[in-house]
Design a protein that fits this description.
The structure holds 2 protein chains of 2 kinds.
Chain A lengths: L16 E10 L2 E7 L3 H7 L6 E2 L6 E2 L12 E5 L4 E6 L10 E4 L13 H4 L8 H5 L9 H6 L15 E13 L3 H10 L6 E4 L15 E2 L2 E2 H14 L3 E4 L2 E7 L3 E12 L4 E19 L3 E3 L12 E3 H11 L7 E5 L3 H11 L6 E4 L6 H9 L3 E4 L1 E8 L3 E8 L6 E4 L2 E5 L2 E3 L2 H5 L5 E3 L4 E3 L7 E3 L9 H19 L11 E2 L21 E3 L4 E2 H9 L5 H8 L12 H11 L4 H4 L13 H5 L16 H6 L2 E5 L3 E6 L6 H14 L2 E4 L6 E4 L3 H6 L13 E8 L5 E11 L2 E6 L4 H14 L7 E4 L4 E7 L3 H7 L15 E7 L2 E7 L7 E7 L3 H12 L5 E3 L1 H11 L20 H6 L13 H4 L4 E8 L9 E3 L9 E11 L4 E9 L8 E6 L2 E8 L9 H4 L1
Parallel strand pairs in A: 1-7, 8-9, 8-15, 9-12, 15-28, 17-24, 18-19, 18-24, 19-20, 34-44
Antiparallel strand pairs in A: 1-2, 3-4, 5-6, 5-7, 10-11, 10-29, 13-14, 14-15, 16-25, 21-22, 22-23, 26-27, 30-31, 32-33, 34-40, 35-38, 35-39, 36-37, 37-38, 40-43, 41-42, 42-43, 45-48, 45-50, 46-47, 46-49, 47-48, 49-50
Helix pairs in contact in A: 5-6, 5-11, 7-8, 12-14, 18-23
Chain B lengths: L2 E3 L6 E3 L4 E5 L12 H9 L7 E7 L7 E7 L5 E6 L5 H5 L1
Antiparallel strand pairs in B: 1-2, 3-4, 4-5, 5-6
The chains are: A alpha+beta, B alpha+beta.
């Protein structure tokens, strides 16, 4: 099959590998590029000039730039490794088999119905959407408007690219691998300092790759290649290509995004194989990011075929692609001429170079004359013609005069260099305006930073190299290492003439002069914003969306500011810039997340007997730990299983895996005194072998956690916080020990995961424990409720607590975690003839609700104090201080109007968590005075029950209230929060 | 990124390994004698400095010790790191 032709490919030259053609598709059409192409250069080579429709007016758009500064060329890419919904064509390296699609234009890129919006353009000014679609509300219009705008569509089925993360340090980070960056790295090469040089391109060189200047007697591109080879061989220098520094943070911390490409082959498609997000800490920093070229602003400057002069040079020199057959140049500085010379060298006709300056460098004029190229000085372009492709431009002398039309299908723009100072701005440094170079340059640099080359201020190549060597010397001095012998290479460069600022065309329709191509912001929009009083640069940005696109206004910001400055009669320095924030360029969220997604987002914690629960048919829920919620072996569905599990505990036996319950050992002679300061109950009177329930509050008196405290002996206590707070409670104890009471002799050890813990609950709990044959007496007299025994079962150490969460006789049996599975197996064997069942979390929580035990976090909120849950007597009975005690004496804690925890018995319908208690039994909308915190149907009582926090609840027992929930109203009676065995006969049995 | 050398284990710890503990040297008044104003000031009132702030940090992923740090709230520059039972330089002068 014949290879598709590359009509815009230059006969020779470029850094592409012409022996390796790569086939790809654009909008379903088969095309061909070469290894070394970007998607943008390959498309241009194939004659594609229309790449997108603009955001608002759906105007045809072409390639304005060649890389991440390009506001137009957004495409979606499907490669051999994954899918990206919106990437910039110039930033993606071509790979065999790539599927490239345009992401704007409906029904197609060539015929976009939305372009009709262009005819209505004069009505769609800045703030149009805000002003027009306000009534009755924006959300009515939003879906319709969204469909016609935006970039790309998400493919939920697509595999994301693989991602990694890497942490590193270095002595010197050099950002940018152009002339200045290469020179700095080369100078530091022999210093022994660990240097990282990062550049966003596949090879070092930056603008040297398309420069016609000679360095040290060879071409600039060859010099860059030689230097890169030398750096690759230097032990202490690491060169990272395809790597963007995306953010600068305090302490010289940086984030870098590195991509790995493969070109692929017809058999094995290539693409972005993976990405790596670096977190890098650097000693010294060299900012060598260079500059980006600005377009010039005039009517019709957005027509496909209009391109930055630097992009033209790059496409020609790097990719061997000519973006036009007849290329005119419009410039206000020397850089435009280099594009003209490069085009001529590649055989492209140059009908004219238009320079706003009256007297460009003589040498340039002579060279153009020799090639029969007209040089129109002191003039400007004020308009373009053509449909979806440029076919000519209109030129007039500055200040007015005779118009002339020049035929061309390409126009290279050079409006001056904008230094890339974003990273210094990330660190809070405000860019300052420098009129002689018509650019914002970095202000005060952060500590240990050096700016060199254009990043410092637009300068000549020899100046950049000298700055680089000065920076290298300064770094060596600071690091105390001997500076290697080096000197800047000779540069053969003609001295140039200064830029002449030219921010917008003198004539033409302001609504056709595009400033921000991506967001369709025109000069007219800025005029309107000024008229309406948006004169701060930050307001201008938000009102017009200038610079808010995915290109972050790389090419548009400075032009916009300058136009604002002129309209408001201020200096550029007075207007200032908007604030640049990280990231420097779009970073995929997946790269930031790295491996921390899916099952690795938060590693699952498994209980010791997890595998046995799986076999027993457990349905797991994540409660911080993977815990059985219910068991399929107990019922066909959740509700049936939960009821069977509850019935087992009430009538025979239930086995519940409570291993995640917190276990903290507090040891030492002052253990009791120490713990007593945390809990509202008096723990100094707790005798060895006894257990007490209590709650813990913060200094503000609000309940933080509850649980039981066990006195093993006078120098060892066990605190049993809730599983959710196990770590926090241990940290809290330790913090107060260190910071407030270092004189107390205590040690704190969190042993939660050292012990597996099984609760056996129900009338047959004691016989079950006895069947395990522990070496201690388990009779009711010898081992009463709220007591603790340590001993052995089969020679294995056990800790057994007789406590109850369910209201039934209950023991909690703890064994070292490695015996957890064994204990569970034994318990299941014993329980089978006893008609026991495994119990999941849901049944467990409903059983405790029947008993009226509260669940911290459900039945308490960020205001609930011990007084509100009925512990006033306990608090009053404790004379010693505890954390939060003083706060309970404050007026707000003592107020009678507080929400207090009570029980609710439904008289009709089902109570549900979150139901609001209506004040005075009124109909909503009305004030509410509390809410249902826990609710379930009680199989034991046969009605719906709940706990609730209700204003003045403790004094309202017996009162009937109406509870509103999702449109229904339930009548209920306020009752004490105990529904089952209020005399505690069962758990004492 | 904030980086602090723990004065106990002497390791350089990154922000991700540390826990912030709020202002340092907030004195807990005697609950028996503090009036409501003293007590609520202790609970809720903190200095909100633009400049050097004296605060508590914990070597959470390391040795677990709490220590004290003087940090500039604008630049995040760490100017002093001391064990918990020591005083900041400016406190010694008084």
């Amino acid at each position: 099959m014949a290879a598709p032709s590359n009509p815009y490919r230059v006969g020779e030259g470029g850094l592409i590998d012409r022996t390796r053609p790569l086939a790809f598709h654009f909008n379903g059409q088969r095309m061909q590029g070469y290894a070394g192409d970007t998607v943008a250069s390959a498309l241009i080579a194939n004659g594609v000039s229309l790449i997108a429709r603009s955001f608002k007016y759906h105007r045809p758009r072409g390639f304005l730039g060649s890389g991440l500064e390009d506001p137009n060329a957004m495409v979606e890419i499907r490669d051999g490794y994954g899918f990206d919904a919106a990437v910039r064509a110039g930033q993606v390296r071509l790979a065999a088999g790539m599927q490239v699609r345009s992401v704007s234009g409906w029904p197609s890129l060539n015929f976009d119905i939305g372009a009709l919006a262009g005819y209505a353009a004069k009505f769609i000014k800045a703030g149009f959407y805000y002003k027009t679609f306000m009534w009755p509300n924006w959300h009515l219009y939003e879906p319709l408007i969204r469909r016609t705008t935006g970039f790309g569509r998400v493919d939920a089925n697509a595999r994301p690219h693989p991602r990694r993360q890497h942490h590193a340090t270095c002595d010197v980070l050099i950002i940018g691998g152009g002339a200045a960056g290469i020179a700095t790295a080369s100078a530091l090469g022999g210093s022994g300092l660990r240097v990282i040089l990062a550049d966003d391109q596949p090879q070092l060189g930056g603008s040297l790759l398309w420069s016609d200047i000679e360095i040290g007697g060879t071409s600039a591109a060859a010099w860059a290649g030689d230097r890169q080879a030398a750096l690759d061989g230097a032990a202490a220098v690491q060169v990272l290509t395809d790597t963007v520094v995306t953010g600068a943070y305090e302490g010289n911390m940086f984030t870098l995004l590195q991509s790995f490409h493969t070109d692929g082959s017809p058999e094995a498609p290539g693409g972005i194989a993976s990405e790596c997000l670096w977190k890098l800490r650097a000693g010294s920093v060299v900012l060598a990011t260079g500059s980006v070229e600005r377009p010039l602003v005039f009517a019709g400057n957005d027509r496909p075929g209009v391109m930055l002069a630097s992009a033209v040079r790059k496409y020609l020199a790097v990719h061997g692609v000519a973006p036009a057959r007849e290329l005119a140049v419009f410039t206000n500085n020397d850089a435009g001429y280099a594009a003209a010379f490069a085009a001529l060298k590649a055989g492209v006709r140059v009908p004219a170079v238009i320079d706003v300056r009256d007297a460009p460098p003589k040498e340039f004029m002579q060279r153009l004359a020799a090639a029969s190229v007209r040089c129109i000085t002191g003039a400007e372009v004020i308009g373009t013609s053509g449909g979806r492709q440029l076919d000519g431009i209109t030129v007039v002398p500055l200040g007015g005069g005779a118009r002339q039309h020049i035929r061309c299908d390409g126009l290279a723009l050079s409006g001056g260099a904008t230094p890339l100072v974003h990273l210094t701005a990330h660190r809070g440094s405000k860019p300052v305006y420098k009129a002689d170079v018509a650019a914002f340059v970095s202000g005060d640099l952060p500590e240990d930073w050096h700016a060199v080359g254009d990043a410092c201020s637009p300068c000549s190549l020899s100046e950049a190299l000298t700055q680089a060597h000065d920076a290298a010397r300064a770094i060596c001095r600071r690091e105390g290492v001997a500076a290697p012998e080096f000197s800047p290479p000779d540069v053969a460069q003609t001295p140039g003439l200064p830029i002449q600022a030219h921010w917008r065309a003198g004539t033409g329709n302001p609504s056709d002069m595009f400033v921000d191509f991506q967001n369709d912001v025109t000069v007219q929009d800025i005029e309107l914003a000024v008229l309406e009083g948006y004169v701060s640069v930050e307001h201008l940005k938000r009102y017009t969306t200038l610079g808010m696109g995915t290109d972050q206004g790389r090419t548009s910001n400075i032009n916009g500011l300058a136009i604002l400055a002129a309209l408001t009669g201020r200096d550029m320095s007075e207007v200032g810039t908007t604030t640049f924030r990280p990231p420097y360029t779009a970073v995929r969220l997946g790269a930031i997340a790295g491996d921390r997604q899916g099952p690795l987002f938060r590693p699952e914690r498994l209980i010791p007997a997890h595998a046995l629960h799986v076999r027993a048919g457990a349905v797991f829920e994540d409660f911080g730990w993977q815990r059985p919620d219910w068991y399929r072996s107990n019922g066909a569905d959740r509700e049936a299983a939960v009821r069977a599990e509850m019935a087992a505990v009430r009538s025979t036996l239930g086995i519940f895996d409570g291993s995640p319950l917190g276990k903290i050992e507090i040891s030492g002679p002052d253990a009791a005194a120490f713990l007593d300061r945390f809990y509202v109950s008096n723990l100094r009177t707790l005798k060895p072998g006894r257990i007490r329930y209590s709650v813990m509050t913060g200094e503000d008196g609000v309940i933080f956690d509850d649980g039981v405290v066990t006195c093993v002996d006078e120098t060892l206590y066990l605190a049993g916080p809730t599983s959710a707070h196990a770590d926090e409670v241990a940290n809290r104890l330790e913090r107060w020990r260190q910071t407030e009471w270092p004189e107390l002799r205590v040690g704190i050890a969190s042993v939660t995961s050292n012990w597996a813990s099984f609760a056996v609950a129900g009338p047959r709990a004691r016989t079950t424990l006895a069947a395990l044959q522990p070496d201690f007496d388990v009779s009711n007299a010898a081992f009463p409720h709220m007591s603790y025994r340590a001993g052995r079962i089969d020679g294995i150490p056990v800790r057994v607590s007789r406590i109850s969460f369910t209201g039934e006789l209950q023991y909690e049996i703890n064994v070292p975690a490695r015996y957890g599975q064994g204990l569970m197996r034994r318990l299941m064997d014993i329980s089978e003839p006893a008609c026991g069942r495994l119990i999941g979390m849901e049944a467990w929580l409903r059983l405790r609700l029947e008993k009226g035990y509260l669940h911290v976090g459900s039945d308490t909120n960020g205001r609930t104090t011990p007084l509100d849950i009925g512990m006033a007597r306990v608090v009053a009975g404790k004379h010693a201080d505890f954390i939060g005690k003083r706060s309970l004496a404050l007026a707000y804690a003592q107020s009678a109007d507080r929400e207090q925890l009570v029980g609710l018995r439904a008289e009709s319908g089902q109570l549900r968590v979150g139901g609001r208690v209506l004040a005075d039994g009124a109909m909503p909308p009305c004030r509410t005075e509390g809410y249902v915190t826990s609710a379930c149907h009680s199989p034991t009582l046969g009605i719906s029950i709940g706990l609730a926090l209700i204003e003045r609840g403790h004094s309202r027992l017996g009162e009937r209230v109406r509870i509103f929930d999702s449109g229904t109203i339930v009548d209920a009676e306020i009752c004490p929060p105990v529904f089952y065995d209020p005399e505690n006969e069962r758990l004492q049995a | 990124m904030i980086v602090i050398r723990c004065p106990y284990c002497n390791e350089l710890r990154h922000e991700e390994e540390l826990e912030y503990g709020g202002e340092a040297d907030v004195v807990r008044p005697d609950p028996g004698s503090a009036d409501d104003i003293d007590w609520t000031d202790y609970l809720y009132m903190r200095t909100n400095t633009k400049g050097v702030h004296f605060e508590q940090w914990c070597c959470r992923a390391g040795c677990g010790q709490w220590f004290k740090v003087a940090r500039h709230t604008v630049s995040h520059e760490i100017t002093e790191v001391i064990p918990y039972d020591k005083k900041f330089a400016h406190q010694d002068r008084h």
